[in-house]
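Typical record was shown:
=====
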Amino acid sequence: TQDDVRSVLTFRLGQEWLGLRCDHISEVAPAHLPRRIAHRADGRVEGLVAVRGELHLCVALIEVLSLGPRQALHDERARLILLAPEQAAPIAFRASEVLGLQPVRPSEIEEVPATLPAALARCLAGVVRTERGRLALLDDQAVLAALEEAMYG
């Protein structure tokens, strides 16, 4: 039925197209280089980014999911995506490119292929075929958990 259709934000990290349900996405903004945080040069926290005057932690989701180095995100099409976990401050990550919203029906979702990197596979809810090829659907709770682990782990 039409009620089964859900919208996912479609974006690219490195070469991989990903989809994330809109439930926890609070904003998509132009990307700019995060400001480094003293004593946090290592790890996957990139630094702080300002969105409409508010500072947010920015985590290298591309590295958390083992899809490439954060240096791959320096492109004119790069965007900043803010995820808002329940009861917590929004967390930002940079995407190589944001395509927009894509409708997905549960009947179109296939199982996660065993060939994907383990770090990515543990954050996936399934895969959908689109005109651009395979779209990996992220599990929003698993992504939030992976981002928080990268910040505090």
The chain has a mean pLDDT of 88. The CA atoms of residues 28 and 81 lie 5 Å apart. The first helix runs from residue 61 to 64. The radius of gyration is 15 Å.
